[in-house]
Design goal:
By secondary structure, this protein is an alpha/beta fold. It is built from seven helices and six strands, in the order αβαβαββαβαβαα.
């Protein structure tokens, strides 16, 4: 469990840092693909940095809407014709040795409409999405940068006492993730009960 929590901590902190380091305009829009644990940390970092307009793309009809609702973002099951200034992949698409290692998380139209393309996949750091974004002349943030910041944060936390305010912020992110998961599970249970009742009525 500790490993999972540490990963969520460093994901959030690293992405928050990268948003500032790359000078991303928080008044613009963000399109995030994924709704798992890391996607929740990444999306929360964008929301907390000031990105008020965002869309979560996730096929999971429980975690996708729950994450979007918590952040005040929109949800859609597929990318479709969605566009944003910043597009972010937080799925295994493009990961080495994975089923989608040769695929891009976003198509050429979505890449063309964006200013910045961010892929958290670190192996390889030059994913099909990153390669296409570079070819299109887009500003790129890679998973290698996330890994580097995570390593630096881990080393720093071992050598120095943590900022309690930062701890409080990260704890809040983790609590919100748990509430998302619990809410989605409760919704599934209610839907199953309603479905059972409908069958009985029929």
């Amino acid at each position: 469990h500790d490993g999972v929590l540490t990963a969520a901590n460093t994901d959030y902190i690293a992405v928050l840092s990268l948003i500032g380091d790359h000078g991303l305009d928080t008044h613009r829009s963000v399109l995030i693909r994924g709704s798992g644990g890391m996607a929740s940390a990444v999306a929360t970092a964008f929301r907390d940095s000031g990105f008020g307009t965002g869309t979560i793309v996730a096929r999971n009809s429980d975690t996708g809407p729950a994450l979007a609702r918590r952040l005040g973002y929109e949800w859609r099951p597929e990318v479709g014709n969605a566009e944003a200034t910043v597009i972010v992949n937080v799925t295994p698409i493009g990961m080495a040795d994975g089923p989608g290692e040769r695929e891009r998380a976003f198509d050429e139209q979505t890449i063309a409409a964006a200013d910045t393309v961010f892929d958290v996949v670190a192996l390889p750091s030059e994913t099909p999405l990153v390669v296409a974004a570079r070819a299109a002349g887009k500003h790129v943030i890679t998973g290698a940068e996330v890994i580097a910041l995570q390593a630096a944060e881990q080393q720093h936390s071992e050598q120095h006492p943590r900022d309690h305010r930062q701890d409080h912020l990260v704890d809040q992110v983790l609590r919100e993730q748990v509430l998302d998961e619990e809410g989605a599970a409760h919704q599934r249970k209610c839907e199953q009960q309603e479905s059972g009742e409908d069958r009985l009525k029929a």
